[in-house]
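Both lines are given unchanged directly below:

***
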Amino acid sequence: MSKIIITGATGMVGKGVLLSCLKDASVEKIILISRRAVGISNPKIQEIILEDFSNLLSIENQIGEINACYHCMGVSSLGMSEEEFTEKTYLYTKLLADICYELNPKSTFCYVSGTGTDETEQGRQMWARVKGKTENYIRNKGFYQVLLFRPGMILPEDGIQSATNWYNTIYRIMRPLFPLFKKMKSVTTTSRIGSAMINGLKEPVPGVAILHNKQINAMANL
C-alpha cells in the first residue's frame, strides 16, 4: 500500500492521474497539493490548499513519509518572462523535490514535462531550457527512482477537460477520431499516464527513465 503526493490535480494530466489512483487498490492515501480545491471527496484524499507554492516548506509537517510524488503541475510559458517561468517551473519543483527527498530518499519522483524538453539547457526555446533544467535537478537529487514523463499528444478521458480553452475546442473537433488515435503508439491518454505512474511505483527500477508516449503506454500496460 502506498502513500503519494499529487500536484496539479485541477489540470488535465493531474486529474487523470488522481482518478487512476482513486481506482487502484495499491494506493492507500493521496495527498493533493493544489492552489484551489479539486472538488472530489474520497476517504483516500488529504487535500492541502496552497495558493503560493513558494511557501511549500510551510506544509511539510502535514505530509509525513511518502512512497512517491506525481508532480503534474505546470504552467504555460505563453506571455511569461524567462524569470517568471523559471520561478513557477524550476523553483517550485526544486522546493517540492527537496521536501520529498527529505521525507523519503528511497521514494519515486515522477515529473511531467513534455516532448521537446531540452536537457542541455542550451536550446533556443525558453520553455524547453527551463524544463530541462528542472528535469536535471530532479535526476541529480538522488531519488531511488525518477520517471520523467515527456508526453506528446494526450487524449483526455473520463470527462476531463483541459484548463486551456482552445485545447478543449480542438478536442471537441477531434473527438470522433479518438478511438483511432488511441490505437496509435505515438498517442497517450490521461488514464494511461496515471496507470504508468502507478505501475512504475509497483515495480520500481532504480535510476532515471525518460518516458515518451510509446514508453508511457507500455508502462501503463504492465
Q: What stands out?
A: The chain has one domain: 2-220. The chain has a mean pLDDT of 93.
